[in-house]
Amino acid sequence: MKKIKETYTSSNLKSSTYDTQTKELIVEFKKGGKYSYIDVPLQTVISLRRALSKGTYFNTNIAKTYTYKKIS
């Protein structure tokens, strides 16, 4: 199991942790809240990290696409 953690300089996203084995992406927001997104492909996570606007990429390609649940 390998987890990849990233901290962002985004106005909305604080950090994310991705589990390469389970394809679970955990996203923490600056205003609070931590959410788990299920079955997110590695390439989507790589694209998020390379995006000029992390928030825009997240909202367009992850938030409205993958099943999620609030975990804290």
Summary keywords:
5 strands; alpha+beta
What features would you describe in this structure?
- The chain is an alpha+beta fold and 72 residues long.
- The chain contains 2 helices and 5 strands; from the N terminus they run ββββααβ.
- It has helices at residues 42-50, 54-63; strands at 3-7, 13-19, 24-29, 34-37, 68-70.
- Strands 1-2-3-4-5 form a 5-stranded antiparallel beta sheet, covered by helices on one side.
- A hairpin with a 5-residue loop joins β1 and β2 (13-19).
- α1 packs antiparallel against α2 (54-63).
- The radius of gyration is 11 Å and the shape is globular.
Question: How large is the count of helical segments?
Answer: 2
Q: Average pLDDT, to the nearest integer?
A: 94
Q: How do the helices and strands follow one another from N- to C-terminus?
A: EEEEHHE
Structure class: alpha+beta
Low-pLDDT runs of 5+ residues are: none
Seen as an oligomer or otherwise, the chain set is single chain
Assign an overall shape.
Answer: globular
Q: Give the helix proportion (percent range).
A: 25-40%
Total number of beta strands: 5
In angstroms, what separates the terminal alpha carbons?
23 Å
Percentage of residues in DSSP E strands: 25-35%
| Rg, alpha carbons | 11 Å
